[in-house]
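yo

u said u wanted the structure for the complex thing, so here. seqs first:
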Amino acid sequence: MSLDGINPELRQDFLTESSELLEQLDSDLVALETAAEGEQADRLNSVFRALHTIKGAASFLGIDPLIRFAHAAEDALNLLRRDRTHFTAEVMDALLQSVDVLRGQLDAMGQGEWPPEGPGALIETLKTIANGQPLAARLSKLQPADGAPGPDCDDAGLTAEDGDAVVPVAVPGDGAQAEPEVEDEAQAPSNGVTESYAPSEPLELPPQKLDLIEFMVADLHEQISGIHQALTEVAGHATRHEAGAALAETAADLHKTLSFFELDGLAALAEAVRNAGEKLPDIECEQVAGLVIRIEAVSWLIERQAEALSERRRLDWPLRTLQQRIETIAAGEQLDGAVAGVADVPMVLRVDGVLGEVASLPAEASQPSQAAQSAEAVEPEDGPYSPSDAVAGVIGGAGGGDAASTASPGAAGGGGPAAGTGNGGGAGGGGVEATIRVEVARLESLLNLVGQMVLAKNQLMAIGRRVAEQPVPQDLTETLAAANSDLDRLTGELQVNVMRARMQPLSKLFDRYPRVIRDLARSTEKKIRLDIEGKQTEVDKSVLELLADPLIHILRNSADHGIEGPAERRDAGKAEAGHIRLVAEHQGSHVRIAIEDDGRGINREVIAAKAVEKGLASADVVSQMSDEDVYRFIFAPGFSTAAQVSDLSGRGVGMDVVNSNVAKMNGQINIASRQGKGTTIEILIPLTVAIMPAMMVRIGAHMYAIPLQSIVEIVRPEDTIRGKVQGKPVMRLRDSVLPLVNMRAVLDEEGEGEGRFAVVVGVGGQRAGLAVDRLIGQQEVVIKPLDDADTQGGPFSGATIREDGDVSLILDIVQLIRTTQTESSASGTGPAAAA
Amino acid sequence: MTVTTDPAAPTSALSEKVETAATRTDGELLQLVSFKVGSEEFAIPILAVQEINRMMQITKVPKSPAFIEGVINLRGRIVPVMDLRKRFRLPAQESTNDSRIIVVEVGRRVIGFTVDRVNEVLRIDAGIVEPPPSMVCSAESDYVQGVGKLEDRLLILLSLERLFGDQELEQIDEVSREAA
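structre next:
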């Protein structure tokens, strides 16, 4: 077998999507282990869904080894969904290993090879799980922290998933069965798990039909997209006639496929759609919208059923009202006002009684007049319907989750409240994609172009100002000024949007770490709790990539070296479970990421001794160093204090990546540690990497750019009181005294004394004044890397091109503030005595 | 001995003639750009040259090595510019109308350097290039790849790799110079 027969584009899509799903699987599995009982059902569903999607896509491409293995894992999961008592750390190990195997198979495909079969032993293990038999306890003393859930927890929506369970909530009116767990659905926007949308029962078909299911499901999907296509055409009025014909034709195909599955309700709906399609040219414009939205609802329902079919299940919805209304419109009759005006799929499904209401909604008929017109078609539910109904929004979130769950792994499982409350979810209810994939290279070139455009705009603005000073007709300068200001605004918006397109949440990285920590804790027989905060913080894609390695190394280091074993912690009077906190937050123009552990802390003496032994510094120098500077040795290449090399850390590689990558981002690292209490490593990185607003200043003979986001305020010369404290220049700003940096001296610029203006800058709570000669003004600057080896070393984070085409350097505020601190500690002895 | 000297912009007919002449010679043909810094004439392979610009505004970069004059805006790209006079430890001189910035690509590095004037594009037989006399072979002049003897003058062939390429070597260079 080979991959040659598969369309490379399809294969690439499959690989990208599946890899993302695997990431999600990984994080969901780990979260599952420690999740509260109420959340477990959602997590399980999310896990199952992801796995199922991968399997489905694999079978579409005919990648048998992957299908077989995914199937085994799916079976095991299926049992767990039904009976969560089987959860043990061993089962989790097996499942996590399965994820690794799948990843390996995908990797092989990525290299153009036919994926290997899954390892037999693991498949056997999975089968054992699927059969409900206990696994031989390998490391039985290590139970999941929260303990295995009790056998009686049937409260969290699993009842609806179990085919045998009967949903006891009845709805008045047309005997529709209620959606019992609407709230729960909101927590987990659904893709593949269909049971919760409607009561379902096993699909009973003759075996020869069952064999064909995969093909027929593919047909169904194809036909649905045909429907979507036709609906798009309906929207453009010019082709109503043809669109109607196309709609009718596709609906006829759908009818055949659905009849094949003996899905009579949906087949009848398809028939109604076909009929409506034929009548489309005759239908009045006002009614078309109501029809289109209902057809979208139909296709949404069919899609859910198609997914359920892959699991050999049939969904049972009350479809009669929906069908009747489609027929009503097709017959050229008017729907009642409120019913006709429904504008999105979830509402249609509710108004037409497909997704039933919870009985508590009173049928007090607050708008009785509207219900009068077509009494026989209107169900009792219609009365209390109101557009702001929260439940409709909730269902909308669930429908819209389709696109979200494939596009961003973070949103599907963990997105919980956000997905549920987002009313934008309704727009995606018809199965229309809310996201598309774009090649990174295209984004890069887009950003590059926008950058150049900003430069060109700046030059144009400068010309505009010069023209205004010339003796030219006033209307000309005014027109130019107006055009320029439009251009300015548009470029600004364009730039923000392009930048935003490149921003990605840190969850892309953070979601991997629970797994890392979990595995590490198990292999080192420690107990570690990892708390992650602020993972929705967004950073530029390039920043995300550069952060990946440093963070994992720091985390491993914290877990391996920082956190002590349970016994040692007990002796030290600490909780047995170590605690690592990973926090991300915005801080001015920077993103701050901190890794805090409550482990044993860094031992200054050990590090110092090692540094001397390695010849990194002499004993004298080290003894003079601040604690933090000593700690920094852990980032030196090849530096390791671990007595034993574990397979996780201790080889001395890794931590030096932290330093070099953070430096690449013009970032900064701070370390704080207390013996026996723990260590905090903090990384500050600039938020954006390409374009930013800056204040242009003159220092000596040259112009420099100061990032506007770092500027706290600018103080006029007459308002500053300057002096010296311990020989080092300071300025007084109201009640505080700040170090003052003589920028002319720092930049080797000519001129006597200090600059007159003080630009007060701040990063992460530390502030300093920069003495500059003149303020030029604010400008958008495009950051160009100053990455040539010969131009590095100065306090610059990059360069930019000014309006006049010349180059200005951008001051690196983090570095400048840092030098004031090291200077202050160094100059504490020398100049003070002189002064 | 074969020396063919093209005018800076050869007509196609002429260059064809030169080609035929070249193919008849035994050795490999070197295509060079020659330029003047101080009183010496230097040459570098034409293929390494990205462009030759008139002098433009050079923004100095504080805290960079002394021989780095600064950076320029090369159509939106920031490119460092080296002062070859400083690099060759020649006395500083104001730039003139003849001064040029030659931008070269060495490995993945794009760097410019200032020269007093650009002379010509020429082709010489590799056979006439001799290794630098051993006396000149010190740490300081190891960027001299060879010396080409033309009819009326000497041409110093520079090794761009040694001049700009290997940054580690360069640092060692620097350190040894500082030590001296």
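The longest strand of chain B covers residues 29-37. Residues 68 and 82 of chain B are 4 Å apart (CA to CA).
cya
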